[in-house]
User: What shape does this take?
Amino acid sequence: MRLLLPVFAMMLATVVAQAQDAFPEVLRAFTRVYAALEENAAEPVDPNLAIYDGALPGAIRALDPFSVFLTADRMVQLQEMQSSREKGFGSIVSILPGRIIVLQVLPETPMARAGIEPGDEFLAVNNYMISALTDEQIIELLSQSRQGQVAVVVRRPGSARPLQFTLVPQEMDSRSVDKAFLLANSIAYVHIKAFEGETARQFRDAMEKLGGDNLRGLILDMRDNPGGVIDSALDLSSFLLEPGSTILHARGRAQAPVVERVPAAAKPYRFPVVVLMNEKTASAAEIVAGALRDHKRARLLGQRSYGKGLVQRVFQLSEGNGLALTTSYYFTPSGESIQRPLKDSQVRKQGEQTTEPRDEQAAVALTGQGGIAPDETIDPAPTNQLRYVLEGTGAFASFATEYLRAGRQVTEHFQVDGAVLDEFQFFLSQRNLRPPLSMWTANSDYIRIRLKAEILNQSVGVEFGERVEAELDPAIQRAFQVLAGR
Assistant: This one.
């Protein structure tokens, strides 16, 4: 039965894709195939498995990679993202290969009430040994653990025995604006990891906290931002563009063209802006970047963005299921298509159609490469063997924990001097890490900055550590130079 289902899905997908003008025949073909399955399959046919897991996803997948059938569970997840509420435990952690180290515990949260502290290392979560998991598996485990009560085993530096805690997640605001701090010269840095229901409000609150209209510039970091709720992207754009400015165009076959503009009552910030993006910047984040670029409101640094300019509408179906369907395409204010052409789908460059469109007036022409091109290409920071080993073993975070457990008093003005570097070298040698002097010297600035960042993370706060670590980011440093007029 399971062997026949993929074939069934592929057959149906092919029929749907190639027979748009013969829909009644499509239904007849579907019922004939399904009847053959019910009559001849080695095992009884499970309709839910055949339709919900096979036929429907297969048929929709033939249209484009982003249209998808949503089960009831996935519909609930989508609604949670739109409300910007999620269950969690209230901590900021560093995920390393086979390790989870707590960097910060937020007050009045399950972590704080249980007594977990910065520097604690998770050894096991719900009987899964962290040391045996990859980074991706750790992230998946942490995501699953937020669904209910979780048992964790923690190693605390200075404690001879592992500690056991039981945590119950609580609902809390999802922080899509996850980094916001001031650099020198009153230049703000804000990182948006995704666009959710409260992203625009969180952005405005962060800007006001950092100085509002008195700021001299903003570095808006949307690298690795996959997009999300389009309304939040429109609202955020209204904080940076003049009233009446066009934010995007949307055109599709079955709906009238849409033009989204900044509301007339908007009161935008007017300081200079630099946007950081990369090949994982997509969808709603590309809308913001494209609008700021077209209106010459921001300079874009980094790499060409992903190119996901599909307008998706979610249709509510029976039994809690849903359908996320591509209904049109996004274009920047200047008319440039955001969507990149996709092989083996209906999303093609102009002139690449395998058949003539049924309605030339309704067909959407896609041109160019798609995505948003930066004004200046900035490559990620380089790495080398020593840096890879130090990061992969969690040496910086582990040393910071031991350093602070010794009772050192650290303020935001803390500096890593020669004595701290010597202590770190001794720490590494005890763990059989003895890099050659030439390699150590060549990486001394990097080591000094990373040590300072991790020690500040666990003592004064993550915001201070992130500010220090920005010194190692070529894109942030270049953005700062642009805004400072260098």
